[in-house]
Amino acid sequence: MAFCERSQASYTYFKSLAPASVVLGPLVKPYCSGCSVTDSPLCRACMEKNETPTHVMLECTGVTEQREIYLGSPATFPEVLSNLGGMLGFWNELGLLK
Questions:
Q1: Which domain of life does this protein belong to (predicted)?
Q2: How many Å apart are CA 22 and CA 25, to the nearest integer?
Q3: Helix (H) or strand (E) holding 17
Q4: CB atoms closer than 10 angstroms to residue 75
Q5: Which of 25, 49, 66, 78 has the smallest count of CB within 10 Å of its CB?
């Protein structure tokens, strides 16, 4: 995944916030309005809301089927984090671990 300088700084800051953010780091979409990393903060799967860890792991309708296969129907981040194998399978299915 390519990062511009500003996106890399945002990604590094996000990962430093809390232990859970290190785990959720792959879900941080590199977004920079001043470069060509991506031209929109919208979710790549549903194009309805900004692509955030909360949105992808708990809300996105574009990945509902994959989320249910790997994670069931989690309502909170602690539920997601308690299923590390499922979370990694979900990320792999979405191509976030490449």
A1: Eukaryota
A2: 5
A3: helix 5-17
A4: 9
A5: 78
CA gyration radius, the chain: 13
Q: According to the model, what pLDDT value does residue 58 have?
A: 93
Strand partners, 50: 42
| Dist CA 29 CA 50 (whole Å) | 9
Per the structure, the count of domains in the chain is 1
What does DSSP assign to residue 45? Answer: T
C-beta separation of 2 from 30 below 8 A: yes
> Could you give the CA distance from residue 11 to residue 13 in angstroms, rounded to a whole number?
5
Strands (E), the chain: none
> What sign has the CA pseudo-torsion 98, 54, 15, 24?
negative
Alpha carbon distance 20, 14 (integer Å)? 10
| Residues of the domain holding 90 | 5-94
